[in-house]
Specification:
With 760 residues, the chain is an alpha/beta fold. It is built from 28 helices and 17 strands. The chain is globular and about 75 Å long. The relative contact order is 0.08.
């Protein structure tokens, strides 16, 4: 009998069929900590309602659930709230104790929010551009532990496009000019640009197709329903000339040429759409969900029949899988009302992409839609991070309140609640601010006990105390004070503040006399007292010696002290500029030197953790290449994305420079420091020579006819004009190596930082 079973399994493997393990959660536990599965009993039980239940079975912790993902979420709940072990991006392989704490009485959690989504297209470039299978395995485990069952699966989409364009008659060279490089594939996939960062080597396509198949197999093994990229009508911008297609030009996006949109009235529309789905299915199989975002971040065009486009896109998807659902991002103008009105209820699932700040579903917001998404189901999503920027940030009270408005039984938004199907993580960049992702992942399992509007602060305070126990395995009063302080300040960005992501570091921006936000669209606005982050850092350092070796504590120590140093450096910058404006050359020399030393001190602090080292990004990029030219191309992609983002036009006129800025060791020292040193040195030289009044300001000569306002503006201090792109681009072309391996002791460096801050 055993011999026949083995032969059958080998036959299935040879046919390319995935053999599903009887219990994928056991595999997950053993990947996390070898032998951990033996400490649990997991049981799959049919249920019409999503649930997990914790209980004790002799010496084993028993976790029941109606899906493998729900069981994994139950395991995670147990680890956090019973064992004081938090599995986090910075701590994916914790050691479990030999004897697990017992579950005194059964604990059961249910939710009617069955659809739980993960990822933004941007995540695949800002965070995951160079991930290998080992890193993907960890992420899929993280997803399962956090209840995700609908992950976007965009890896390898470019392979589909390469194959169909070759079939349509495009040359290999032309394909290379259309498909973007590895760090920019997200914006190509969203119809924003063509070719930037490419052309991709043949080996890239082979690697990514193989990687995507492993990703999908593991996700399906856990019972997830991957969301594959569908056909949104995109074609190369020259498709009219090369293929004779009827298209509308895509125009430009921040200086880049956009792909064109194939009109649904074109006689070739169905043929090209079917060709896309046939190739997608051949490579990766069919899906229950397909993601399509036609006309992403584009102005309305009277020449486009949006309703007809919507019907055509849906019909093409349904020809592939009649039961499939179209997933669309609720972002700015999308989904167009014409498309929503043209489609049947149940065929469209809308991701309310920024629910914690700018919801469209009906909660108060600058983007509020009075009727939400009408008849269509939708997901409450937390965006949290833009550009994978590093920085403490969150909207705890807003998140809790908006989720309450969407999901609570007594919500005034009854229509929105009726069509709410779940939640999602839609961050542009991951691996940051774990506290916000823990909060969002737990709220759906507490949907029956959400706080009223006037008790949100109390709910937050209680939740944060539980977070401390889960995060560090302790009820330490000092650590609870830290998180209450952060929860009341930097992690509680208020309603009305629409900034995109973290408060940005003064170190990361192009220098000027009035530095504030780093990137063009951050909408940054002060909302917390920098004394609060400084006090939180002081408290963390005061107990640091007690928690040496506690991975989560040491990660948070560096992150919180980093934030405090950033905030104090902003004040130091303002003092330096005040010295310049006051023409106090001696004070300027002292304060500018201190600012630069703070920047280099930040570099040293961040170097103590792998997560905050540039090397973890550049090493991953180079490791995917097999030839020197491949390695150099991938590294160039990695360097450009986090600095200039684009070429000179796109960086400067398009405003993309520093969008994905990173507070990373190596980048601070070799990219941000030279910018600031250059600028402050120029200011110093300007002060040394600027001792005579400028007579033109007084109205003499050519300026005699200027208005008083113009003369006043001319009299204001003006910093030196520097060609920043010329200074920045050379770094993107270099190949000096950066190591991912930590250097120094994080606790010792944190103490040094606080000592320096105390000297002022």
């Amino acid at each position: 009998m055993m011999r026949h079973l083995i032969i059958s399994l080998l036959s299935l493997l040879c046919m390319g069929v995935t053999v599903v393990n009887a219990n994928p959660v056991d595999d997950l536990l053993n990947r996390m900590d070898p032998g951990a599965a033996a400490k649990f009993r997991t049981e799959l039980q049919p249920s019409a309602t999503d649930f997990f239940e914790l209980s004790q079975d002799g010496t084993h912790v028993c976790v029941k659930g109606n899906t493998w993902v729900n069981i994994a979420a139950g395991v995670n709940w147990y680890l956090k709230h019973y064992a004081g072990i938090m599995v986090s991006w910075n701590n994916m392989h914790p050691r479990l104790p030999r004897h697990l704490p017992s579950v005194a009485k059964p604990e059961r959690h249910t939710t009617w929010l069955t659809d739980r989504y993960d990822f933004n297209y941007c995540t695949f470039s800002y965070s995951m551009a160079f991930w290998d299978w080992k890193r993907w395995e960890e992420e899929i485990d993280w997803m399962a532990l956090h209840g995700i069952n609908m992950p976007l699966a965009a890896t390898g989409e470019e392979v589909v496009w390469r194959n169909i364009l070759l079939k349509l008659g495009y040359s290999k060279e032309a394909v290379g000019k259309f498909i973007a490089g590895p760090a920019f594939l997200a914006w190509w996939a969203m119809n924003n640009l063509e070719g930037w960062g490419g052309p991709l080597p043949d080996r890239w396509y082979e690697q990514q197709a193989a990687l995507q198949k492993k990703i999908l197999a593991r996700e399906r093994q856990l019972g997830m329903h991957p969301v594959l990229p569908g056909y949104s009508g995109m074609v190369p911008h020259d498709a009219k000339e090369k293929l004779g297609l009827n298209v509308t030009p895509g125009g430009t996006w921040n200086g880049y040429t956009r792909p064109a949109n194939l009109l649904p009235t074109d006689s070739h529309f169905d043929r090209i759409a079917d060709l896309y789905y046939q190739e997608l299915t051949r490579l990766y199989g069919k899906a229950d969900y397909y993601s399509m975002d036609p006309f992403h971040e584009s102005a309305d065009n009277a020449a486009i029949d949006y309703a007809a486009c919507g019907r055509k896109l849906l019909a093409a998807m349904k020809r592939t899988n009649a039961k499939a659902v179209w997933v669309v991002q609720g972002w700015t103008e999308n989904p167009r009302p014409e498309i929503m009105n043209a489609l049947p209820a149940g065929d469209l699932l809308v991701l309310d992409l920024f629910s914690e700040c700018r919801p469209m579903f009906g909660a108060p917001s600058v983007w509020r839609r009075a009727d939400g998404y009408g008849k269509h189901p939708w997901l409450f999503c937390m965006l949290e991070n833009f550009g994978a920027n590093v920085g403490l940030h969150g909207r705890m009270d807003q998140l809790i309140n908006n989720f309450r408005l969407a999901a609570a039984a007594n919500t005034p938004l009854a229509s929105a609640r009726e069509h709410l199907k779940g939640y999602g993580f839609t961050m542009e960049g991951s691996e940051n601010n774990p506290v916000m992702f823990e909060l969002m992942s737990e709220l759906p399992w507490m949907v029956g006990s959400l706080p009223s509007a006037d008790s949100i602060a109390t709910f937050r305070q209680q939740w944060l105390n539980a977070y401390v126990r889960a995060r560090y395995g302790t009820d330490d009063a000092t650590l609870q004070q830290v998180w209450q302080l952060l929860g009341n300040s930097i992690y509680n960005c208020p309603a009305g503040n629409n900034q995109q992501g973290p408060h940005e570091s003064i170190f990361d921006g192009r220098p000027s006399l009035n530095n504030f936000q780093v990137k063009s669209w951050s909408k940054m606005h002060n909302y917390y007292d920098p004394a609060d982050t400084r006090r939180a850092a002081e408290l963390m350092v005061s107990v640091a010696d007690h928690y040496r070796g506690n991975n989560n504590f040491e990660y948070d120590l560096v992150d919180i002290v980093r934030q405090a140093l950033d905030d104090q450096a902003r004040l130091q910058y303002l003092r330096t500029i005040a010295d310049y404006n006051g023409f106090d050359r001696q004070a300027f020399s002292r304060d500018s030197a201190r600012f630069l030393n703070m920047l280099l001190l930040q570099d040293s602090l961040l170097g103590t953790r792998r997560e905050f080292r540039l090397g973890h990004w550049t090493e991953a990029a180079r490791s995917l290449g097999q030839t020197p030219s491949e390695k150099d191309l991938y590294e160039w992609n990695a360097r450009v994305q986090i600095t200039t983002w684009g070429n000179r036009v796109c960086a400067d006129e398009g405003g993309l420079r520093d969008y994905a800025h990173k507070e990373w060791q190596g980048l601070l020292r070799d990219f941000y420091y030279p910018r600031w040193h250059t600028y402050l040195d120029a200011l110093s030289k300007q002060m040394a020579h600027d001792t005579k009044p400028d007579l033109t300001v007084l109205g003499e000569g050519a300026n005699a006819n200027k208005t008083a306002t113009e003369l006043f503006a001319m009299a204001l201090p003006k910093g030196p004009v520097i060609d920043w792109y010329a200074l920045e681009e050379p770094w993107t072309l270099q190949h000096n190596s950066y190591s991912a391996e930590p250097v120094g002791d994080c606790i010792d460096l944190a103490k040094r930082v606080m000592k320096v801050l105390g000297e002022n």
